[in-house]
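Please go through the sequence line and token line underneath and see whether the fold suits the sequence. See right below:
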Amino acid sequence: MKNSYDVVIIGSGPAGLTAAIYAARANLSVCVLAGSKPGGQLMITTDVEDFPSYKNIQGPELMEKMIDHTKSFGVEFITEDVISVDFKKKPFKLNTDEKTYDAKSVIIATGASAKWLGIESEKKLIGKGVSACATCDAMFFKNKDVCVIGAGDTALREALHLVKMCKTVTLIHRRDEMRGQKVLQERALNTKNMKFIWNTTIEEFIGKNKLESLKLKNVKTGKIEELKIDGAFVAIGHKPNTDFLKGQIELDNGYIVVKHNVKTSVEGVFAAGDISDHRYMQAVTAAGAGCMAAMEADEYLEELKHKK
């Protein structure tokens, strides 16, 4: 295993792995710094029905197939976490707990992690009625009663997507008003199958093998109630995994700022997937961005050769 590459890809979700495949096919030396927990957000997803060519596949199985596909091109796959980088000089330096890697170009694809409530019962039921992605999982709750936890833009968009196929959608919020865009608030308030529970927090997700109900607490009265529900969507936002990049690249609310889809503020450094996309956040869009990032990196490296 060497420590100097044409392209180093940080992250091993759909964006990073697709980038690795395209970069390897361009005959570049490629390393994926996959992290200590490879696979990204799909590793905590159960059924996946919206990734082309797979009618239904488990998230971890899909990622295993993508990892195997990537390795088949001779890509170095290293399960280490990047803790810091130096983009101020070339070659770029990427530091893990184990060693330092040099890269002529870098593709950052570390994604964004859904924010959860942090309740133990929530963790046990993720993928069993508890989700953080309506676009991914809405079809599993067709004609059923679901709730969305939160009241910002993320929550309202999730709720307005769910009302198209769910019997009812109940928005649960710890305050007495929504925080999202006014236009989204108006749509929600004027949707017949939407309900609202204000000044309320989730105390517990109840169910053994799947979600059955929620234990709710009114923050003003202290009253505890139980709400029967088929699905719960936690929509309190996402946190981009960019802590290791601060001071090295332009960020906006933690997300990498890009132009022309994947180019960052540092020439030769590219970003793909949820790390720079806080709107779509889908496996298929991340994979597409990974393809673009690899092609841009290849073009950048070609230009470097001609400058010499």
